[in-house]
Amino acid sequence: MRKFLLAATLILLMGGGCASCAFADQSAPPSAPSAQAAQDGPIQSKLPDDVERNLPDEPLVAAQHGMVVSAQHLATRIGVDILKQGGNAVDAAVAVGYALAVVHPCCGNIGGGGFMTIHLADGKNLFLDFREKAPLAATPEMMQSAAGKVVKGRSTKTYLGVGVPGTVMGFDEALKKYGTMKLQQVIAPAIKLAKDGYVLQPGDVHILDTSTDFFKQYPNVALTFLDNGQPWKAGQVLKQPQLAATLELIAKNGTRAFYEGPIAAAVVKASEANGGLLTLQDFKAYTVQWERPIECGYHGYTIYSAPPPSSGGTTICETLQIIAPYPFAEWGFHSTRSTHYFVEAERRAFADRNTYLGDPAFVDNPVTRLLSAEHAAELRASIKPDAATPSSEVQGSLGPYQATNTTHYSVVDDAGNAVAVTYTVNSYFGIKQIAGGTGFFLNNEMDDFTSKPGVPNQFGLVQGKANQIEPGKRPLSSMSPTIVLKNGRLRMVTGSPGGSTIISTTMESILNVVEHDMDVKQAIDAPRIHMQWWPDEIFAEPGAFTPTVQSALEAMGYKIRDVHSMGDIAAIVVNPETGMLESVNDPRYPAGSAAGY
Ligand code: DON
Fold first, then answer.
1. pLDDT (tens digit, 9 = 90+) per residue, 61-74?
2. Same domain? 115 vs 218
């Protein structure tokens, strides 16, 4: 029997907070198992009365043959169409990726980069790194003034923030190695959407509205992303003819069009005109990289996730190794004890993350040591049973907090192939600029590097030398496209946006399913928590704790920071009883959808 049932469906719509999350909704906490409820007091069944409620109740979707879940409903439908036409999960993933570049332009992209984790039906588990690289002329101090001060906005809003985009080469590589369809076939729906346009829904408009003031600054951006200088309204049709032309060039000439042809030339020209460092050589020298995914066992499950230059898989596996001996299922979801040990494990794993990890082409990442049983035992032994450990007592440097401006999607096909993709331009719409008439936003991924040791980036991330800027280096990421197997068979595909919170969000989605026996809807609706070493606080969505648990945690020395909403999960779970694929759109992101056949 399910240990957790959603007690009620509630909504939170709060002003302020992260602009990108302002529309996000919040569900009620699931009810806890009775033994834990007795210990922790009655479960909180409603949010405080002063909180406005308006949660769309997204239906759980079940399908036998294939499933796609993404942050934009049109992209999801394109993925399902490709599967129905006989394409495999990689074909569909590339089609969804190009479609999101059109219908989810804040985050879906060809001007950024990302990661793809693949589980093939024959048992192979793969990871493709198409993260952006720093330009060859980049230097560790390039974000600083002559006086050594980090220049505000340089890494986020100028061409100096742009890394060499990897998405087009990443998709090409995945499709050529493991797809069955031609690029022209999978990119065609995206071209059509860009050319003919698509009807904007309130969720789409809400995202565009976050950046209206920036769009107004750049005539070539305003041309498309504003309607005669005014924000687009829901119900209107957004056409992107310039992006359509760019995608047509890619369809015709493949990666060469992007990395050696007119697209690279247009980006370099705009970069040169605006003080950037990008050169044609940067584009020509760009490469993607197959890596072995990070792999770890947890309570009979095997987890495959993102290796460096992502910190995601390492931090997820390190945290899970620390908590593995504790009876989380018995303790219950977000009970005092399960929260205490989860948070203490995260505090220590994030301290390691922020201190040691960087691009493996430049840094010797001590992943084996971080994931060893000895290291887990050592960290576990340092957790006090009844009190929080101040972060000042945990070794390392300061850490991050980021918002939710990336996008994750998941695909499973009829043969049992599974693909998890997280890709990004970093901030919503990256630097919020488009090179000439190319039609796509350029990333500001250079801000993920350490601009200066000890100085936080746009999300408060204070990192060390392992992640300093170097020519051709990839910035450290938290993106964690993750696949979970049980006895070699697919159990779950998951991931999310949200900067450093990606790691917690992804991990909690897994724990909710494998420890707390939730179905995919319960696992995704459930409120989330996050701890990242610094700041020394637990980030908690509304309703994350019962009042009794919250008081108990505070008495143990925890500071709890209420956050409006963390990233949306796009997960597919195989129902262990029926074998059906199950998914749901995360209500935190109403523009998305899950669909299957
Ligand atoms: O790679 C990373 O970790 C970040 N560039 C992801 C950014 C994100 O999730 C959205 N931003 N706040």
1. 999 999 999 999 99
2. yes
